[in-house]
Amino acid sequence: MAKKNKDEFEYQGRSAAKWKEHAQESAGNFDRFVRDGVNRFTPKEGNNRLRILPPYWKDAEDWAYNIFIHYGVGPDEQSYLCPKEMKDEECPVCEEQTRLNRAGETEDAKAMKASKRFGCWVIDRKAEDEGPQFWSMPFTIWREANISAEDEDGAIREFDHPTKGFDLLFKKEGTGLHTKYLGIKLATKKGPVSVDVEDQKQWLGYVKKNKVPDILKFYDANHIEAVFGGTKSSDDDEDLDDKPKGKKKKGKKKKGKKGKKGNGTERLAKSAKKGKKSKKKKKGNGEEIPF
Ligand SMILES: [Zn+2]
Hints:
The chain is of the alpha+beta class.
């Protein structure tokens, strides 16, 4: 009798890693500029304390990796790495920016400019269980961190050093466009990434395996343009194809036939909605966009 009910509540457990991976997954119609599954850091309101992990990519000249991001692209306000700034390839957003500048619409052009950020792996001291998290750090923090690296005698404190580094402290106030970072400085005491040798090994091992340049996700110009221009798919392009190019960039090129390249292309139809709304200043896709 008892046997009969044995499997009634059968449960097939999944690993903690799987749960976490799914919590990080993008919502399908969202493009991300880092690989799915990458744990992302967002500064918390109030005091933050981080440890910046060393760069392991080849010939690193800085502890952070320069990235250029276009925020708020298309109706869904997605974020893309700028192919022009980063790979010297065609970028539809930069092209539109140039066009607007020439037309004297400098305000709109400014909103489209690729934002310079600094990609690095960090340990959030208030959430060490999360392990290494990726942060596209804003310019202000990057610069202030570098300034505070020099002590009063002119000696450099290598704060990303694995065993003799320094934590980075700052305070975050406000959100979105009103975000402010205050009191950006290094902790006074130096120390290892972790006092727990196992954690240290694991974290640094992970970061070595997932070098910043390797986790970045690029989309090609066609994909970005389709999202940016708000075109749907090739089936819906008919009424746009014959329009003169000058007017606005809507539907400039025919797209959709180029097959699946990467995992982004098939998302086009879902993410590209009617109408170009790239002028919107409000950023709403959950990316942290402090200035
Ligand atoms: Zn660009």
